[in-house]
Amino acid sequence: MELAFVIEKVLLVSLIFVITLVIAMYSTLAERKVAGFMQDRFGPDRAGPFGILQPLCDGGKFFFKEEIIPAGAHKTLFILGPTIAIITACIGSAVIPWGQELTIGERVIELQVTDVNVGVLYMFGVVALSVYGIMLGGWASNNKFSLMGAVRAASQSISYELAMGLSLIALLMVTQSLSLKEIVVQQEGFVNWNIWVQPLGFLIFLICSFAECSRVPFDLPECETELIGGYNVEYSSMKLGLYMFAEYIHMFVSSALMATLYFGGYNFPFMNDLGLSQNWITIIGVLVFFAKIFAFIFFFMWIRWTLPRFRYDQLMNLGWKVLIPLAIANIVLTGVITVIKDTFF
Q: What catalytic activity does the UniProt entry give for this protein (predicted)?
């Protein structure tokens, strides 16, 4: 393996990691600004112009607060919980195609860490692993409220991963590929976006994303009114910060995945009719991709300050009795339409 390729990938991984952390950090400010806007108030506005230094203040607070480990806690697993949560949150972005190729000199640089031909399965594996960080943290805290939050997280994850996976099966029947890059390439042109052929699948995937990210109205694992914070109730200092960062990184990666699977990824209308060089089209495509991601992140926040939290039995009923049957019906409908199309057209 040539040295230039290794350096290229290391720089790309480092850049994506930094961008992910910065977006997660400023999502905390955006969350409070959106809340302030929807509640007719300003939100944070003291630390720097328009409060733009507030995330740095919050990060400093997490770093310098006293770190407390409960006397009855399993120390190793107590530390391992938030570590797994943040690692699994960060590695999900490795298979997402952020843009087309950039040509610098004689080198063609792919704006994707790795293009595995089972990228969709990789994302599901990462999502499945993320719940272990919550489970370990909840159990190791030796607190009944944190344990109950962890059990809720595991049950919620199992329930909604099934519906999410079934919704993607219908999409894979259309795309005939598990490679995220190939799925994006197939969506070149506004009319070819998968949202037009899989609207029900996208709706199911979107709802399941809220549950997988433990976002309102599905934030039952950390329900303050019942569990005083849930699985992270005993955490303080930067360990609590890692759990919070993991949630916002999950939201960012979920938004990128939805934009990739259903909204064309880095593709945008008339991209091949601009008469620009490939590098400029790539740069514009990256900016468009991030605009789609930010739109989804705003939607996550908008829903948080619009809808009330579900009861836990309502959450389970929605997953098992509504979303899973709808996802199965969507698979059958997609299969019927595909057979009719192949037979008569």
A: a quinone + NADH + 5 H(+)(in) = a quinol + NAD(+) + 4 H(+)(out)
User: Is 335 inside a domain boundary?
Assistant: yes
Question: Residue 44 gets which letter from DSSP?
Answer: S
What tokens were used for 172? 């894979």
> How big is the CA angle at 117 (ends 161 and 210), to the nearest 5 degrees?
25
Whether residue 241 lies inside any domain: the answer is yes
Residue 28 contacts by C-beta under 8 Å, 6 or more apart in sequence?
Answer: 54, 55, 58, 244, 248
Crossing angle of helices 237-262 and 278-304, rounded to 10°: 120
pLDDT number for residue 227: 63
- The number of domains in the chain is 1
- Residue where the block lists tokens 């991030």: 290
Q: Is 285 exposed, middle or buried (0-12, 13-18, 19+ CB in 10 A)?
A: buried
Stretch 158-167: mean pLDDT: 92
Classify residue 15: in a domain, yes or no: no
pLDDT at 236 over 90: no
Q: Does 122 reside within a domain?
A: yes
For residues 152 and 149, what is the distance between their CA atoms, to the nearest angstrom? 5
Q: Give pLDDT, residue 259.
A: 97
**pLDDT on residue 225:** 62
Nearest to 12 by CA among 123, 101, 129: 101
Calpha distance 272→262 (Å, rounded): 20
Which three-class secondary structure state does DSSP give residue 230? helix
**Confidence grade of residue 272 (pLDDT, cut at 50, 70, 90):** confident
CA distances from 267 to 115, 163, 186, 257, 293 (A): 17, 27, 10, 14, 13
Residue 186 has pLDDT above 80, yes or no: yes
Domain of residue 152 covers 66-344
323 contact partners, CB below 8 Å, separation of at least 6:
160, 163, 204, 207, 208
Contact present, 135 and 154 (Cβ < 8 Å): yes
- Better pLDDT: 268 or 345: 268
- Euclidean distance between CA atoms 167 and 145, whole angstroms: 33
